[in-house]
Amino acid sequence: MLPGYDFVGEDLNPSTGAALGTFLIANDGDGWDPDPSDPGDWISSTDQKNTTLFPTSSCALQDSSWHGTRVMGVLGALTDNGVGVAGMTWNPYLLPVRALGKCGGYDSDIIAFSRQRERSRGCAGELLWRSRRRRIAQRRYQGWV
User: Fold this and answer.
1) Phi, psi of 12, deg, nearest 5
2) How far apart are CA 59 and CA 70, in angstroms?
3) C-alpha span between 100 and 38 (Å, rounded)
4) Which residues pair with 6 in a beta bridge?
């Protein structure tokens, strides 16, 4: 597995785009960094009390989807061992990247990952480029794997 990157940034006010100084959507306590660990994207009743970041109309109570973990598991699964599913290729190089968090994310975080990948063919460091982030309405991938 290759070293990855976390592109889920600071929480922003959906109306003004101003930084809120919190990292609730990221759910890992910080912004962009070289730690792509997936803490989960569950929505709790505590989250729903913060209607600015987690509007109840689009952020229902739910357990974590573990989407990234499941995708990496399918891609990197061993093949021809008689257990579970067959992986997508032999000896893959897997690059773990986070660009979405609880209840979705921001276009700019996804675009930043794309630009960084384009520039360096990897995730070597934090980009200086930032745009005004825009919330993606309820981007969920459960059931796609």
Assistant:
1) -125, 150
2) 21
3) 10
4) 33, 98
Phi, psi of 6 (to 5 degrees): -105, 115
Tokens at 79, concatenated: 């093949």
DSSP string, 11-72: -B-TTT--B-S--TTTTSSSSSBS--------B-HHHHT-TTTS-TTT---B----HHHHHH
**Number of residues that make up the chain:** 145
Does 116 reside within a domain?
yes
Domain containing 35 equals 1-139
Residue at 40: amino acid letter:
G
Please report whether residue 122 resides in a domain. Answer: yes
Cα gap 50→28, rounded to integer Å: 17
What percent of the chain has pLDDT above 70? 80
Q: Does residue 28 belong to any structural domain of this protein? A: yes
Lowest mean pLDDT among 48-52, 88-92, 113-117, 120-124: 120-124
- 3-class secondary structure, 109: helix
- Whether residue 145 lies inside any domain: the answer is no
Domain count for the chain: 1
Asked whether the predicted pLDDT for residue 145 surpasses 80, the reply is no
